[in-house]
Design goal:
The complex is a heterodimer of chains A (323) and B (295). By secondary structure, chain A is mostly helical. Helices cover 76% and strands 1% of the residues of chain A. Chain A folds into two domains: 63 residues, no CATH class; 255 residues, Orthogonal Bundle (MetI-like fold), CATH 1.10.3720. Chain B is mainly α and 295 residues long. Chain B has two domains: 54 residues, no CATH class; 236 residues, MetI-like (MetI-like fold, Orthogonal Bundle). Chain B is built from 13 helices and no strands. Classes of the chains: A mainly alpha (323), B mainly alpha (295).
């Protein structure tokens, strides 16, 4: 159907025996590009298929109990993922808990407050932060950030908030907390750039209305920009979460790679992604399959986060076009 | 409802004016602080890398092979990364451009959305999982190889190239294409000799940004091209030494000499990434100006 519409103009022109070449060329370009487009679906399908296939024997051996037990014992071939799920959940949610307000503040600054001429340069700088390769951020995390957190920030947090078990009295330069900070640095550019785009779609008339009613700039943001942008902000946070749960390299470098579930976020732990990166090579077949099971969980999480976020973004874009 | 409530909130009290201004002030200051903080973090990271890495750079560091015992350099890793990126770009860029031509020129509303949706989701797949996929596809039953690494990087690049090229192709004004068709050119000739050249600099931007992303990618390489000798390897059917796995490995050792080398390698890598991003951005700014003028 689309082909007919697509080739209509040229077939009109080629009515008087224009060369076969053109008719063939139109067909060929259409088919080649269609095949390329299908290839992207095949890759996504192939990834899903291979990951589930790899996980097959672990899924049939451990079932759903894999998700709730937490011994990971390659020697006795007993595997449970609870500790890694805990590590992933705490590091990602913790990161987004810090990154979301920061990103919203940055986006508000860039759309409402910053002097017009400084907006683009600052936005570009924030986006450059997203371009820093994760292995470099991890290197910086383990050699610069970790020691700083260990010597300064962690004791201070313990002194101020030590009655909360999260901020225990044992410090370490590697652990959940440095992972959280690194993931925050990685997700802020993603969340803030999408949030900024969404803020830019808020109709100026609504903002001017709030200001004309005598509102301060914050009154205006609170009553127009933020409520209007809610679905977009949710989408941005989900994209950030998708990035945070899947980050393997930088997290492996700074998290310390220790087993167990501890309330204290200052001591070493492990996430699903970092466990895969740390153990995949040289693992026995069942161990590899158990890592595949972790990958299945990660893949489902990232499909859900990205899938829902992109649908929300589409809704926002449509609304922006209509208004 | 939203409006009436906000009107009430705004007009409600005359007495809380001072409080509202104080809150407004506090919010504005927090927003400034947040933006400054993000820029400061970027500056701190870049300055750390420059301070610790720039001093490592000399001819030996750039030309000697990695070494497990002595000091060595990263020459073979630079060559390997160059080969991996080159092969990945040769695979991902043409296919990505073809996908973009399909979604922008041929696809209907629904099929276009589905393909872009698939690309966005593919872009969100954790790269360590891409590594597992390539491992299962090309390494199981064979051995690690540069080809496998290149395929992994190409899968990372593909959605980036296709999405950004789609965006610029849709920016090409309709009347430019119609001019081509009106001259009697067929659709494929119009696409290849009018639409694509008009959008070319924007498409190059997309390709450069994808290369910048892939060159810093570690996770897939760690699974499929990480067991290599401290030698110069140029045959992609063998595992290729590369910069990111070297940095990763060195950062995990307790050896200060290796840490220093990791900083040196990081310095070169970040310079390359920053240079690519800057070139890409200036190209895209130029293209937008040109298309703006054409409109």
């Amino acid at each position: 159907m689309t082909t007919d519409a697509a080739t209509a103009p040229s077939s009109l022109l080629s009515g008087q025996g224009r060369g076969l070449v053109d008719r063939f060329g139109d067909r060929a370009l259409y088919l080649i590009t269609l095949l390329a487009a299908i290839l992207s679906g095949v890759i996504l399908g192939g990834i899903t298929y291979e990951v589930f296939k790899l996980a097959g024997s672990a899924i049939s051996k451990f079932g759903l109990g894999f998700l709730t037990t937490s011994n990971w014992d390659p020697v006795h071939e007993q595997f449970g993922a609870a500790q890694f799920i805990y590590g992933t959940a705490v590091s990602s949610f913790g990161a987004l808990l810090i990154a979301t307000p920061l990103s919203i503040a940055i986006a508000l600054f860039l759309t409402e407050l910053a002097p017009r001429r400084s907006r683009t340069p600052i936005a570009v700088l924030v986006e450059l932060l997203a371009g820093v390769p994760s292995v470099i951020l991890g290197l910086w995390g383990i050699l610069v950030l970790g020691p700083f957190l260990n010597d300064t920030v962690e004791p201070a947090l313990h002194a101020a908030l030590g009655w909360i078990p999260l901020f225990g009295g044992t410090y370490s330069p590697v652990g959940l907390f440095p992972a959280m900070v690194i993931l925050t640095i990685m997700t802020v550019p993603i969340v803030s750039s999408l949030t900024r785009e969404v803020f830019a779609t808020v109709p100026p008339s609504a903002k001017e209305g709030a200001l004309a009613l005598g509102g301060t700039r914050w009154d205006m943001m609170k009553t127009t920009v933020l409520p209007y942008s809610r679905p977009g902000i949710i989408a941005a946070v989900m994209l950030g979460l998708g990035r945070a749960v899947g980050e393997a390299i930088a997290v492996t470098q700074v998290i310390g790679g220790a087993p167990g579930i501890h309330a204290n976020i200052f001591i070493p732990a492990q996430t699903m992604a970092s466990q895969i990166a740390a153990q995949y090579q040289g693992a026995s077949p069942l161990n590899q399959s158990a890592l595949g099971y972790l990958a299945v969980v990660l893949l489902i999480l990232s499909l859900v986060f990205n899938g829902v976020a992109r649908l929300l973004v589409r809704g926002v874009q449509r609304r922006a076009k209509v208004s | 409802m939203e409006a009436s409530r906000s009107a009430q909130a705004l007009l409600g009290g005359g007495g809380n004016m001072r409080r509202r201004h104080a809150i407004n002030r506090a919010v504005e200051v927090s927003c400034w602080t947040a933006a400054l903080l993000a820029v400061a973090v970027l500056a701190i990271v870049l300055v750390s890398i420059a301070l610790k890495g720039a001093g490592e750079i000399n001819l030996d560091f750039l030309t000697q092979n990695t070494s497990s015992f002595g000091v060595g350099g990263i020459g073979n890793a630079l060559v390997g990364t160059g080969i991996l990126i080159g092969l990945a770009a040769l695979m991902a860029i043409p296919v990505g451009i073809l996908i973009a031509i399909y979604t922008s020129e041929f696809a209907g509303r629904r099929s276009g959305f589905v393909i872009r949706y698939v690309l966005d989701i593919l872009n969100g797949v954790p790269t360590i999982i891409t590594g597992i996929f390539v491992f299962a596809l090309l390494v199981v039953g064979h051995q690690q190889s540069g080809w496998a690494g290149a395929v992994g990087l190409a899968i990372v690049m593909l959605p980036l190239v296709a999405r950004s090229c789609h965006e610029v192709l849709t920016l090409v004004p309709g009347h430019v294409k119609e001019a081509g068709l009106a001259l009697g050119a067929s659709r494929w000739r119009t696409t290849l000799s009018v639409t694509v050249p008009t959008a070319l600099s924007g498409m190059i931007t997309g390709a450069l940004l994808a290369v910048a992303r892939a060159v810093g990618e570690t996770a897939p390489l760690l699974l499929v091209t990480s067991i290599y000798p401290d030698l110069l390897v140029t045959d992609p059917s063998q595992p290729l030494p590369n910069v990111t796995v070297t940095i990763f490995r060195y950062s995990e050792t307790p050896d200060p000499v290796k840490h220093a080398q990791a900083w040196g390698a990081a310095f070169i890598l970040i310079l390359f990434v920053l240079a690519l991003s800057i070139v890409a951005r200036s190209l895209s700014a130029r293209m937008r100006r040109r298309l703006g003028a054409a409109r």
